[in-house]
Amino acid sequence: MSYASSLYFTGVEVGLSLTGLVLLLVAAWGGTKTARAVTAAAVVALLGATAFSAHLFDLATGEVAGRAFGDLYRADAFGSFAKILIYVATAAVLVVTPRFFAQGNAYRVEYPVLMLFNAIGMGMMVSATDLMTLYIGLEMSSLSSYVLASFLKQDARSNEAGLKYFVLGALASGIILYGVSLIYGFTGSTNYEGIRAAFETQFSSGALFGVVFVLAGLAFKVSAVPFHMWTPDVYEGAPTPVTAFFASAPKVAAMSMLVRMAMEPFAGEVDSWRQIVGFMALASILIGAAGAIAQQNLKRLLAYSSINNVGFILIGLVAASPAGVAAVLTYLAIYVAMTVGSFTALLMLRDPMGNQLETFADISGLSTRRPALAWCLLALMFSLAGIPPLFGFWGKFVVFQTAVQANLVPLAAIGIAASVIGAFYYLKFIKVMFFDEPTREVETESPISHWIVLGLSVAVISPLGYLLTIPLGNWAAQAAASFTLAM
């Protein structure tokens, strides 16, 4: 394959890289005063990358989609679907970010550049078909994430979050790298096709250890139990827009990377990893739900909610079928809308002095002060709980349906029963916002940009979202088939 074709297939990463370098020069010459202009340019670049990814998605079943740079990278519908979610989530977070840092002039021009390079790394992760490409993309995303978590240099909580994320993230990267070395040692290849062919010939105990190490490292990246311990602390300590980013775009990238690893190089050894992923799914559902019950900080609660939802997503992967992959992608699409909307609502919770409000006590009686915001937050929480007729119910439905079709009825039954636990802390929002007396003054106005992002998120998860069921299902099915059939 020619370099021209390879550059075309990697056009998103090349375009975003060039944009990031140009914006980096603008940041160096213009300083902080160019921060908003650089942010706007980054959003435009991400939306352009979304459009190009959609273009590749439409052509993924034809001759245009293919392999780049000797099959180190693959342009297919699966990668394009994940990238669309990643870039949309990143752009949405950038739109609602500047106001958070306005107090104390903490917003710096490096922030949107870091987000842009993070998005490039995530794009490489989901399209990688070689362990070396995967690791480069993973580290490119992780290194910028560590800086973003500790972006508020004067805030002790932000510094603590950055340090914890760095130490545990480095440990997870080391675990993945050790697993990669074992897999290479026992297969003689880092290419996904080569690994799968070698495993079909012989799957030794040493290779199994390599698979387990890789899955363990990826489980950290998606914050699945028992590798979830960093999530509540980092989510609480990081700046709220950064937390919104961590809970959406990197989650999609890591989960998509995990799905591709399981369904391509490890596809012939489903029985070897299904029990591991099944345990992580059920443990994440139970611990995520139980851990959220006692939380008073809303960001920590959403962290446990994220762990809980990761468990539901993993149930689709346990099915180990194209239908299961399609269910995972469907859930991820709905999850991005719910998560971005939830954190946007939190960003709109401020006192008259401009300080962020983050606890249940802060939203007491919110319905009397800001009824529109209270109702939006209520809809988002109920959707996360999977309560019909909100669209979050559909995500859980397709995942459990796939599990039943794969004869995983006990797994689906336990997951459905455990999902009832989560309803408790989501219902707590009703009690606090609509029945408790107000204890804090809240800001009564928010920027139009926040309302646009929140309004779009709520529209997607509302009953109107069911208009997307057929097209979303078709897109997810096409994305799943694009790589499961490519092998």
UniProtKB/TrEMBL annotation:
Localization recorded for this chain is: Cell membrane; Endomembrane system; Membrane
Its transmembrane ranges are 6-30, 37-57, 77-97, 109-128, 165-187, 207-230, 275-294, 301-320, 326-349, 372-394, 406-427, 448-468
Is the Membrane keyword given for this protein?
A: yes
Q: Which residues form the NADH:quinone oxidoreductase/Mrp antiporter transmembrane domain?
A: 128-422
Q: Which reaction does it catalyse?
A: a quinone + NADH + 5 H(+)(in) = a quinol + NAD(+) + 4 H(+)(out)
Any one cellular-component term (Gene Ontology):
plasma membrane
Q: How does it sit in the membrane?
A: Multi-pass membrane protein
Q: Which domain of life is it from?
A: Bacteria
UniProt keyword annotation of Translocase present = yes
E.C. designation(s) = 7.1.1.-
Example of a GO MF term: NADH dehydrogenase (quinone) (non-electrogenic) activity
Q: What keywords tag this UniProt record?
A: Cell membrane, Membrane, NAD, Oxidoreductase, Quinone, Translocase, Transmembrane, Transmembrane helix, Transport, Ubiquinone
Give the GO terms filed under biological process for this record: ATP synthesis coupled electron transport
Physiological role: NDH-1 shuttles electrons from NADH, via FMN and iron-sulfur (Fe-S) centers, to quinones in the respiratory chain. The immediate electron acceptor for the enzyme in this species is believed to be ubiquinone. Couples the redox reaction to proton translocation (for every two electrons transferred, four hydrogen ions are translocated across the cytoplasmic membrane), and thus conserves the redox energy in a proton gradient.
Q: Which family does it belong to?
A: Belongs to the complex I subunit 2 family.
Subunit structure and binding partners: NDH-1 is composed of 14 different subunits. Subunits NuoA, H, J, K, L, M, N constitute the membrane sector of the complex.
What is this protein called in UniProt? Answer: NADH-quinone oxidoreductase subunit N
